[in-house]
Amino acid sequence: MKTDIEKKPVDFSLVIACYNEEESLAELHTKISEVMDALKASCEMIFIDDGSTDASARIIEGLHEKDERVKLIQFLHNYGKSAALSAGFTVAAGRYVVTLDADLQDDPEEIPRLLETLERGYDLVSGWKKVRHDPLSKRLASKVYNYFTSIFSGIRLHDFNCGLKIYRREVVKTLRVYGEMHRYLPVIAFRNGFRVTELPVRHHARKYGHSKFGVARFARGAFDLLTISFLTRYKMRPLHLFGVLGVLSFMGGFFISLFLAYERLFANKYLSNRPMLFLGVLLIIVGVQFFSIGLLGEMITSLRKDTDAFLVKRCLGCGEKLQKPGSGDFIRTL
User: Fold this and answer.
1) pLDDT at 1
2) Do 115 and 96 meet the contact criterion of CB atoms below 8 Å apart?
3) E strands, the chain, where?
4) Residue 209: predicted pLDDT
5) Helices 238-266 & 275-303, crossing angle to 10 degrees?
6) Taking all residues of the chain, what is their mean pLDDT, rounded to a whole number?
7) Is the pTM of this model over 0.85?
8) Domain limits at 318?
9) Are 190 and 260 part of one and the same domain?
């Protein structure tokens, strides 16, 4: 079953996650409208209200009444940016999908430049906040994060977490975003075989409200980076990782134990005071455990069905029930 929005293809789908950004929403809508009108492009503006406690949802509803291009997905409570983007990607019908933050720090006027770069043969163009208007602590943390992400991911970008990005439609339909994975969308797309690049974009100082940035997010992001590195390489073949580790550990323990057994049987050396004996036994046990984990992972992979559910308070312009093809209900509406 297709949603109403999927029956009406448009040029651009703008996916905008917002959390307590009531002051900036009307101004952002005006800026996006001006850019789309200048491009003479059809669009939809999908605002995902991520459990805001201010008047954000009411303001978006007012924009929807005035402009049918405005859509609203209102979460029951705060699920995080990854969940919001995932919901937006699910209903996006545009040939191009643009993500940007709702705080006006991302400039919609950069969209034509991003589109021009995309049309040079890329599938995803990520913004690069080359000149940032953020506190020093946030800039330094971002530099460290981007440096290590480049090393572990194998793709060299200066700014993985810039909110301003443009995708071809087929890219976002392959992305599964959860946890803090929104930070690694270029990595996921790159590992899926899509062509990814970046473009320096303007970045503005926050005009309203306050940043939702916290140091704890980088700690969670570090674990998610390890998750991405594992899933993109071994998601469908976990035994290839754990099996190799298990075999190496088992063989190390086996040869140590074999050597000690030889010494005891043929060199008449006692093993009661030999720590190597305990190391050999430990390596054998660990090897068996690694191999068992790999087999269990293979079993889980064969049985697992990708399903996610977010409680949505209401939808405006996106249909009553949103579905992800092939996996049943993706978003459940109350």
Assistant:
1) 36
2) yes
3) 10-18, 43-49, 70-75, 94-99, 124-128, 165-168, 196-200, 311-316, 322-323, 329-333
4) 59
5) 160
6) 81
7) no
8) 4-235+307-333
9) no
Per the CB < 8 A criterion, the answer to whether 45 and 102 are in contact is: no
Q: What is the pLDDT of residue 330?
A: 46
Q: Say what the pLDDT of residue 3 is.
A: 43
Q: What angle do CA 14, 17, 21 make, to 5 degrees?
A: 115
Residue type, 85: L
H-run or E-run covering 145: helix 136-153
Determine the distance from the C-alpha atom of residue 280 to the mean position of all C-alpha atoms in its chain, rounded to a whole number: 41
- 256 and 129 part of one domain: no
Q: Count helices and strands (H / E) in the chain.
A: 10, 10
Shared domain check, 59 and 30: yes
d(CA 88, CA 258): 59
Q: Flag whether pLDDT at 4 surpasses 50.
A: no
The total number of structural domains that make up the chain: 2
Same domain membership, residue 218 and residue 290: no
Segment 167-181, tens digit of pLDDT: 999 999 988 887 677
Mean pLDDT of 251-259: 91
265 and 223 in a single domain? The answer is: no
Query: 283 and 158, same structural domain?
Result: no
Partners of 322 in beta bridges: 331
Task: Quickly tell me which residue has 């996921």 as its tokens.
Answer: 188
State the DSSP code for 172: H
